[in-house]
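Hello,

Our lab assistant flagged a job as stuck in the queue for most of the afternoon. It eventually completed. Since we weren't sure the result was trustworthy after the delay, we are filing this so someone can double-check. Below is the sequence as submitted and the structure that was eventually returned. Let us know if re-running is recommended.
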Amino acid sequence: MQSLLQHAGIPFEFFDAIDGTASEQFLHSDKAAPKLTFKRKGYHLVPAEIACFASHYALWEKCVALNVPILILEDNIEFCSDLHSILDTLADYIDKYQFIKLSATHPNRYKAKTVISESHSIGVYRKGTCGTTAYIVSPKAAHKLLKNATIFIEPVDDYIEKTWRHGVTVYHIYPSVIERSQLATTIGSTRKQKQPVSFSQKMYIEGYRAYESVMRKLSAPS
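-- returned structure --
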């Protein structure tokens, strides 16, 4: 990562992600809401997922404290194009769009909003694209994300996609300028733990899923 970013001429600093493996108690771990997560989702977040959410939460705090937009990157990425020139171009748009993903883990139907070059545009996907591989967040967006993340109910990438919860629309640059590499990550990849649920709870979970589907459609940018 150091070689990649230095070669691209992009100033950066490493952020030590919050470690959820050594102990169940770590920075922001008290924001986990296992009972509510299980009620709504039928699973429990593992400590690594809570720590991942906490790490992004801490970076949003830093964004607000610095009062400048920041680019957040995972540690196993590759550039698909000239990232330096793309970032220079996006500097003119971050105040307007506030939150821009540079990578789509699961791309789907896309609608362009603003053409920013001969090859790229800023727009929205019809459905969430998952992942937090690379994104730019403005202080305004970071403040909204923080304000509405008093508890961690789902993985952070799911939370980010839920505009109706925090009021931040997720925009994307298309095509993606960053993708995950085949290099191993030091962050970890342990995922949520599913458990058996009763019939009545399963019905509640399905009802809540339907509610979120409606809210996603209502909050989608036109």
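-- support follow-up --
The delay was a queue issue, not a problem with the job. The result is valid. The chain has a mean pLDDT of 92. The radius of gyration is 18 Å.
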